[in-house]
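Lecture 7, part B: from sequences to assemblies.

Below are the input chains for today's worked example.
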Amino acid sequence: MKTKLNFTFILFLISVLFFSCGDNKKTSQEKNKSIIQKSEKVFVPDFNADSAYYFVAKQVEFGPRVPGSEANAACAKFLENTLKRFSPDVTVQNFKARIFNDTILNGKNIIASFNPEIQSRIFLCAHWDSRPFADHDSDKNNFNKPIDGANDGASGVGVLLEIARQLKLHQPKIGIDIILFDMEDYGTPQSLQSNKEDTWALGSQYWSKNPHKINYRARYGILLDMVGASDATFTMEGTSMYYAPDIMKKVWDVANKIGYQDYFIYNQTNGIIDDHYYINDIINIPTIDIIHHDPNTRSGFFKHWHTIHDNIDVIDPATLKVVGQTVLTVIFEER
Ligand code: AHN
Ligand code: ZN
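Predicted structure of the full complex, as C-alpha cells:
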C-alpha cells in the first residue's frame, strides 16, 4: 500500500513536470512569434567580410590611386569592370576639375544602379582616389609622398563592391545607386596653408552639379569614409547631424540593434567637410557620413590618417563586416 501510493505520487509528479515544461515551451514560442511580427523581420543578406577585404586589397595593389597617375587609370578600369559584373547599368562620368594649384585634372566618377526603374531610391558612396601627400605623417620627409589609402578610400569602396555583389544575388525593395567618387583627397597640402576653399571632394562637387541621370532624386545617401581599421569608432559627425539627423538615428539604431554598439557610438562630434557636405549643400539630398573618428588623435580621425602607414596592414575584416552588415540591413529594411 505504502509503495503503491508513492508510485502513484511519483507518476503524478512526472506528469505535472512534463506538462508544465510543454506549456513553457509553447508560451516562449508564442512570445518569439509576436516579437518577430512586431519587428517585421525581413531577409537581409549576409555581408561577406573576406570578399570585401579582397576588394580593398585589389585596389591597394595598384599603388596610390592619385589622380593623373597610371595606378589611378588602371584602378578605374578595375572598378568599372567589377561593377559591370554586378549590374548592367554602370555609368562612368568623365569630368575635369581644377585642383588647389590651378592645374586641371581629369577625373572619373563610377556609378552602378540597381532597380533603376524604381523611383524610391537611396545612394551609397565612397571616394576611390588616394591622397598625393602624406602631410600628416610624423616624418616631414614623407609629406610629399602619396599614400596607399587602404583605409582612406579603399575601405569604403571595398565595402560597396561587396554590397554590389550581394545586390546581384538578392533584390531589395527599393532602388540603390552606388557612387564611387574620384578626386576627393587632392585638397590643399598642409604646408601651403592657403585659404582656398572647396579644394576637397572635387568628384562629389561635380556629381552634385551634374548627377548621372536627369532630375536624379534619392530619399537619402550614405557616405563611407575610413571604415576598415581595427576597433574603429563611428561617432555622430556634425555635418551629418545638421543635414540628416533622422537618417543618422536610423542607421545608428540599426547598428546597435544588430550588436555593433562598440563601433556605432551615439556621441556627436565636430562637423567636417567631406563628400556629403557638397551633396547636402548643392543637390540637397540628405546625406550622412559614416567616418572613423578618434578623440585621442590630433587630427580627430583614425590614427594613420594621411600618413604613409595607411596601408593594407591597418585593414581589419571585422570592421568591414560591421559597416557592411549595418548598411545592408538598413537598405533591406526599407520599403
Ligand atoms: C578635411 O580634412 C577638410 N576633410 C576630411 C575629408 C577627408 C579627407 N576624408 C578623407 N580624407
Ligand atoms: Zn583623406
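Note for the exam: The CA atoms of residues 125 and 179 lie 5 Å apart. Keep this in mind when comparing with the next example.
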